Amino acid sequence: MDILDTKVLYEYLSREAGNGSLQELDPMIYRRIADMLNALKGYGYEGIDAKVRDALASMLSDIARLMLRIRLEKVRGSDPIDYSKLTEEELYIALAERELRLRYNLLLSSVLNGRSKVIEAIVKKAASTLVLVRFIKQVDAFIGKDDARYGPFEAEDVAMIPFRDAIDLVRQGKAIELPMVEY
Length: 183
Fold this sequence. Notes:
Blueprint: H1 6-17, H2 29-41, H3 47-77, H4 88-112, H5 116-127, E1 130-135, E2 142-143, E3 149-150, E4 158-162, H6 163-171, E5 175-178
Antiparallel strand pairs: 1-4, 1-5, 2-3
Helix pairs in contact: 1-3, 2-3, 3-4
Protein name: Putative DNA replication initiation complex subunit, GINS15 family protein
Organism: Candidatus Nitrosocaldus cavascurensis
InterPro entries: Gins51_C
């Protein structure tokens, strides 16, 4: 795909928006859009050329945003999901949503079928979930919601702490949650 071939991108988007099911899509579309945006950033345009570059970058960003949103809404609304028509990037998100549905069904089934032991295991799993945070202020040592000791922490320290403690510290402006992305 040529860096100036926005017509093809528009055709993909138009076809996707005009159909209720997932359409075949260039499996490299998101990487190609990212490469196009990266290439645009690399040029030092001025004046009218800079305005054209910014407009093109905005249009490419809108196409990517709309394409991803439309396709993932279709995934959320379909059962069963045809994973074969997803790009690898979309599959990354769809798998997380699949996990959410499985967890929902497990909890609901456990409640409805009186499986209190399964519910206890779910509660323990939730209580022991750790998240990655970066401290932006000093934080004294504390006993976490999991009864373990954490800290003390200085500004810019990074640590894994219980989810509920992390939420409290983020709310207090003492830390920010970092994504735990597996590559």
